[in-house]
């Protein structure tokens, strides 16, 4: 019994003292922010027809629907074109800054605002990946996804090394050193401006909003202020330690929800496929390869569809991987093999069926299960490549004239 209690104590200590999966949460942050950014940039010329005042789904129709389902969208605060452009610009800018990890906590909330505002304004736009982005945008606001591979983390590292004063008085996870918080104008100004916008939006909202979303927005805003106060006046005191414990608990719970969500998506998809007759006889993959809407490369799709054995293996393999994946989480080797298979499957969907953003969203969601060693190895390789490229650029000097044949030649880089 004592050993069980010690195990429980160690688990509680781990959950409260550590934000688990910092590299996985960073990859999820970068993946979803990048996917949404690419989607917005692709649809930039058609943004008003898709989500704005020029679309077939009019502002009045959207207002009626949202009044019934209680969905949130900032685009329903006004039907003016100027307001739409502001919201769209916020969506693009927050995606860029979240991907870079600048003021990550704040940008995650603005990222959620942009995603919910656009997607709930026109619910018929999307290819399935929008549902995943919709959910992950909410979950990311609860994670400390900027502790590594972010501008916040770099600022914190420089502050701790004493090269720059500690910045980030607002609760940027991982961006505030434990030694205290120096005066920073950006954080308080950003906090005050967003609080004013949130107050105006809450008071003037024309349609009902779910209570949980208001609690999330106001709770996040209030926690930013508490975090700043703790770092400003008691950087090593109990309030700062308590906030850190709560942040770790919320992060770990949100990370667990993300993992459960991914497993649920694959489990439901796999078991629904099992019930389909086309999936049972191994011909389900053949039919989308023959639809013009899903064949951006007709020759490649036709070549794949012509092989009955290949179609059958891919059809059965898809079902097996999706059904089996949730049961392999406690076997690291099998889980990693199926994870690679699922990512390759989504890469194939992006190329063969012309659904790149759905595939990118699913790959970003799958990244929560990537091994830490692999992520660190990949980061090391990328850093090494960047250094080599940088050294080559710096050593491209003009050709020197030799004063004498005996002068040695030095090669650098």
Low-pLDDT segments: 164-181, 399-413
What's the overall average pLDDT, rounded?
A: 85
What's the tally of helices? 17
Integer-rounded radius of gyration: 25 Å
How far do the termini sit from each other?
A: 62 Å
Spatial shape: globular
Structural class: mainly alpha
Strand content: under 5%
The ordered string of helix (H) and strand (E) elements is HHHHHHHHHHHHHHHHH
Helicity level = 55-70%
Largest sheet: none
The total beta strand count reads 0
Structural features, described:
By secondary structure, the protein is mostly helical. It is 67% helix and 0% strand. The chain is built from 17 helices and no strands. 32% of the residues are buried. Mean pLDDT is 85; it is low at 164-181 and 399-413.
Please describe the structure with a list of short key phrases separated by commas or semicolons.
0% strand, mainly alpha, single chain, 17 helices, 413 residues
Structure, briefly:
The protein is mainly alpha-helical. Helix content is 67%, strand content 0%. The chain is built from 17 helices and no strands.
Write the layout of secondary structure elements.
Elements: H1 2-17, H2 22-42, H3 47-50, H4 59-69, H5 81-100, H6 104-121, H7 129-140, H8 151-161, H9 186-204, H10 211-233, H11 238-274, H12 277-280, H13 298-305, H14 308-324, H15 332-352, H16 356-366, H17 372-394
């Amino acid at each position: 019994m004592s050993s069980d209690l010690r195990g429980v104590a160690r688990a509680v200590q781990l959950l409260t003292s550590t934000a688990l999966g910092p590299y996985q949460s960073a990859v999820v942050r970068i993946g979803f922010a990048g996917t949404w950014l690419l989607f917005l940039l692709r649809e930039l010329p058609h943004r008003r027809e898709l989500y704005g005042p020029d679309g077939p789904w009019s502002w009045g129709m959207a207002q009626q629907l949202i009044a019934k389902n209680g969905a949130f969208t900032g685009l329903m605060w006004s039907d003016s074109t100027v307001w739409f452009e502001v919201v769209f610009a916020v969506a693009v800018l927050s995606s860029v800054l979240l991907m870079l990890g600048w003021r990550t906590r704040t940008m995650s909330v603005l990222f959620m605002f942009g995603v919910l505002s656009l997607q709930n304004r026109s619910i018929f736009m999307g290819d399935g990946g929008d549902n995943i982005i919709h959910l992950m945008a909410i979950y990311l606001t609860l994670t400390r996804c900027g502790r590594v591979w972010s501008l916040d983390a770099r600022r914190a590292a420089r502050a701790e090394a004493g090269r720059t004063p500690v910045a980030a008085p607002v609760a940027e996870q991982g961006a505030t050193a434990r030694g205290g918080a120096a005066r920073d104008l950006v954080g308080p100004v950003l906090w005050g401006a967003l609080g004013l916008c949130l107050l105006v939006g809450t008071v003037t909202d024309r349609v009902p909003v779910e209570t949980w979303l208001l609690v999330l927005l106001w709770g996040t805003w209030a926690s930013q202020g508490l975090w700043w106060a703790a770092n400003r006046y008691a950087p090593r005191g109990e309030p700062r330690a308590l906030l850190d414990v709560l942040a770790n608990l919320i992060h770990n719970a949100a990370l667990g929800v993300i993992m459960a969500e991914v497993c649920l998506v694959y489990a439901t998809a796999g078991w629904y496929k099992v019930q389909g007759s086309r999936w049972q006889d191994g011909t389900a993959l053949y039919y989308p390869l023959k639809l013009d809407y899903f064949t951006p490369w007709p020759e490649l799709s036709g070549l794949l569809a012509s092989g009955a054995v290949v179609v059958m293996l891919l059809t059965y393999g898809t079902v097996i991987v999706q059904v089996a994946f949730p049961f392999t989480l406690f076997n690291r080797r099998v889980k990693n093999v199926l994870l690679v298979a699922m990512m390759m499957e989504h890469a194939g969907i992006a190329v063969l069926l012309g659904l790149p953003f759905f595939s990118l969203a699913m790959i970003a969601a799958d990244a929560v299960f990537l091994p830490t060693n692999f992520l660190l190895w990949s980061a090391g390789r990328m850093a090494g490549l960047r250094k080599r490229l940088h050294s080559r650029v710096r050593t491209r000097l003009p050709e020197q004239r030799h004063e004498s044949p005996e002068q040695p030649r030095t090669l650098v880089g």
